[in-house]
Design brief:
This protein has 254 residues and is of the alpha/beta class. The protein is 42% helix and 17% strand.
């Protein structure tokens, strides 16, 4: 079976204390999750985090550190990842303002990020990038995400978020295939539409994304971890995570 992780950002309003984090890990393991991605929850020391996760039979798949320390204090981030035995960290996204929505802005970010990735790699951590939707908005005729695919250092991994790629008007499966060999982890979240034409997040398998195509592309591309995330939605967060993993196992045979 495929490895399925839970993005703890889904539980950010619940896991605000050490006890709540431990209780959440217990519940996630019972649901069948193999690991977690750390983001937005109580900040515990690396060694303590590793001990808690190991005690519940989980691992830290990857992290989304806050952008400021990730970009400007790499040694602190590297040390914590070493303590957690976690080898993947990703930037949640880069978002230049409208005034700087130019190719030269994105190309400078790419060049700077390539240099930073080498620093992380020296510490045994691979630096990655997680998309939202704006990376697919044309920038002087080119999608910024296409620039990243072409010009990111090969060590930089791509954490494609299926919902946000679809929201950005592209086919998630196509971009997963295009990222083959550098996409060890993807974010799985589904999209539905309301009667008043608003997009809404929902549980994996309950919306309109083409999951058979996405999972086929993921197998082709070498994805190792399928991480479930739901930023917002109607269902209670734990119930949402349980519904998603059940659909992924039972409906799609993941």
């Amino acid at each position: 079976m495929a490895l399925i992780g839970a993005q703890m950002y889904t539980l950010r309003n619940i896991c605000t204390t050490k006890k709540a984090f431990i209780d959440a890990c217990k519940r996630l393991k019972k649901m069948g999750y193999d690991g977690v991605q750390l983001s937005g929850v109580v900040d515990l020391p690396g060694k303590e985090t590793r001990k808690i996760l190991a005690g519940e039979g989980l691992v830290c798949v990857c992290t989304h550190p806050a952008s400021d320390p990730l970009l400007h204090d790499p040694q602190t981030i590297i040390k914590k990842h070493q303590e957690m035995d976690c080898h993947f960290a990703a930037l949640g996204c880069y978002y230049p303002d409208e005034k700087n929505w130019k190719q030269k802005t994105w190309r400078k970010f790419i060049a700077d990020y390539n240099k930073l990735a080498k620093v992380y790699l020296e510490g045994g951590v691979r630096l990655g990038y997680h998309n939202h939707a704006h990376e697919f908005a044309p920038c002087e005729g080119v999608r910024p995400y296409d620039m990243m695919l072409a010009d990111f250092d090969p060590s930089i991994w791509l954490e494609i978020d299926t919902y946000w790629a679809q929201f950005g008007g592209v086919d998630p499966a196509e971009y997963i295939r295009r990222a083959a060999g550098r996409i060890p982890i993807i974010h799985c979240k589904d999209m539905t539409i309301t009667r008043d034409w608003n997009h809404k997040m929902c549980e994996v398998g309950d919306g309109n994304l083409n999951w058979p195509a996405i999972f086929e592309a993921a197998r082709y591309a070498g994805v190792r971890w399928f991480v479930v995330e739901r930023d917002n939605g109607d269902m209670e967060p734990f119930a949402s995570l349980e519904r998603s993993i059940k659909n992924m196992r039972d409906k799609f045979g993941l």
